[in-house]
Amino acid sequence: MPEITFILPAGKEQTCTAREGLSLMEVALQNAVPGIIAECNGSAACATCHIIVDDALASTLDPISEHENDMLDFTAAPRAPGSRLSCQIKVDGRLDGAAILIPAEM
After folding, report:
1. What is the pTM of this model?
2. Are 25 and 47 in contact (CB under 8 A)?
3. Which of 76, 23, 83, 25 is nearest to 52 (CA)?
4. Domains detected in the chain
5. In the β-sheet with 3-7, what is the strand arrangement from edge to edge?
6. Is 18 within 8 Å of 100 (Cβ atoms)?
7. Measured between alpha carbons, how far is 106 from 58 in angstroms, rounded to an integer?
8. What do you get for the CA distance between the two ends of the chain, in Å?
C-alpha cells in the first residue's frame, strides 16, 4: 500500500498508509490530517480539501478537470501552481512516497 506524507502548514509531517482506490481526501480524513475539512464529502463543491503537489508529482497525475480548476478559485489559502482538490486524486502507485502540502489558510 502506498505511503503518503502530508506536510502541515507549520512543517510537521504526518505519514499515512493509503489503500489504493481511495481519494487523497479520504485518506486524510481517515487519518485525521489537520487542514482537510471536506465539507462536501468529496463532490468537488467546496474547495475545503485543497492541497498542493510538487511539479514532479503533478506531471504524473490525471489532468485537472475544468470543474476542479474553477473550484480552486474558492480556496481559503492562496492558489499555487500545484493546487489540487484532494477529493479528485485517487490513490495508486504513483503516490507512493509522495509529499502533499496542506496550505495554511489566510
Report:
1. 0.94
2. no
3. 83
4. 3-101 (3.10.20.30)
5. 13-17, 3-7, 99-101, 50-52, 83-85
6. no
7. 24
8. 34
Give 62-103 as a 3 state SS string.
CCCCHHHHHHHHHCCCCCCCCEEEHHHCECCHHHCCCEEECC
CA proximity to 45, closest of 74, 83, 81: 74
Tell me which residue of 78, 20, 10 sits closest to 47, measured CA to CA: 78
Q: Which candidate, 25, 47, 46, 70, places its Cα nearest to that of 16?
A: 25
Q: How far apart are CA 72 and CA 83, in angstroms?
A: 7
pLDDT in tens, 47-95: 999 999 999 999 999 999 999 999 999 999 999 999 999 999 999 999 9
For residue 106, pLDDT beyond 60 = no
Q: Are 38 and 27 in contact (CB under 8 A)?
A: no
